[in-house]
Amino acid sequence: MTGSTSPDNDFVLAVHGGAGTILRSTMTPEREAAYHAGLRRSLEAGRAVLADGGAALDAVTAAVVELENEPVFNAGRGAVYTSAGKQEMDAAVMDGRNRAAGAVAGICGPRNPVLAARVVMERSNHVMLIGEGALAFCRAQGVAFEEPSYFFTEARWKALQDTLALRERGADDHDDSRKHGTVGAVARDRHGNLAAATSTGGMTGKAPGRVGDSPIFGAGTWADDACAISGTGHGEIFIRYAAGHEIAARLRHTGQSLEDASRIVVMDILAPADGSGGLIAVDKTGAVSLPFNCAGMYRGYVRADNVLRTAIYDEPLREFIGA
Ligand code: ASP
Predict the structure, then answer these.
(1) What is the pLDDT of residues 59-74, one digit of tens each?
(2) Which of 76, 122, 247, 265 is the most exposed place for a label (fewest CB within 10 A)?
(3) Distance (Å, rounded) from C-alpha 213 to C-alpha 205?
């Protein structure tokens, strides 16, 4: 759908605000506008980095910080709740230049979990830290923290109560729109380097301690010298099918285009396996692909032409000229 390539020195940034989107029938114009505006703010933050000649890694980090700060998306402020009524967030960042990677899982405290993941990547000898150990490390590194009240939103709390009530009646409808969400960004910078970042509260009513695909490299987050991927959807399936790495492997070993590889993974591999969701992908040529197999995926991308393109459903992307 968006597979055109760009000149060598061009850059591209794609973002998502999660799949399993609110059904069109229950969406209000105000909400819809808020989602588009949130996506645009994220694209503008990442684009500013890339337009300056900055690194893809810094652009995806900046873009995800914006989305984490938006309470309408399920990451950072506005994260969903576990079945025990707690928020447990996962985040990851990966640099395609050298496969440097950092992730956190099962944390609540850092204002921006993606910055916690970045600190793990840059200042520890490890790739992933979880729970209390991750929090202690982040505190020691001076990562900014917030009180639990900062992360609270009425809408996510209600979604948990609805989910628990349905479960109690044995009537869990597995409604994607109530449960899902994640944010992510992928970019190719002017130097041709790639990076990916993903951040999530996970799935509403998840078991305490459950970790999804977002912080698992090769599943919900991946970046190498071929492509960068950030996924959103039924995390267990993205993990079992190594969704992100499957796309990279197809580019490397079969010569498939980014568009073909990412569509095959989302439509032909994940969907039949109960893996509802989608992903955003860019490759080293600057091609972009944004496939999803559910009602919608908050998504957008921008190139050096500064046209911010965003969409929610299976619909043409709206175009805005950036500031
Ligand atoms: N993939 C996320 C997870 O499983 C949730 C989502 O993107 O909807 O944690």
Answers:
(1) 999 999 999 999 999 9
(2) 122
(3) 16
Predicted model pTM: 0.96
In this structure, what DSSP letter does residue 277 have? E
176 lines ligand 1 (CB under 6 A): no
Ligand 1 centroid to residue 74 C-alpha, Å: 9
CATH topology of domain 2-321: Glutamine Phosphoribosylpyrophosphate, subunit 1, domain 1 (3.60.20)
Place 196 in a pLDDT band, splitting at 50, 70 and 90. Answer: very high
Distance 209 CA to ligand 1 centre (A): 14
Contact 281/289 with Cβ under 8 angstroms? yes
What would you measure as the largest C-alpha separation in the chain, in angstroms? 57
Give the length of the chain: 323
The more confidently predicted of residues 3 and 107 is 107
The response to whether residue 212 sits with its C-beta less than 6 Å from ligand 1 reads: yes
Domain ranges of the chain: 2-321
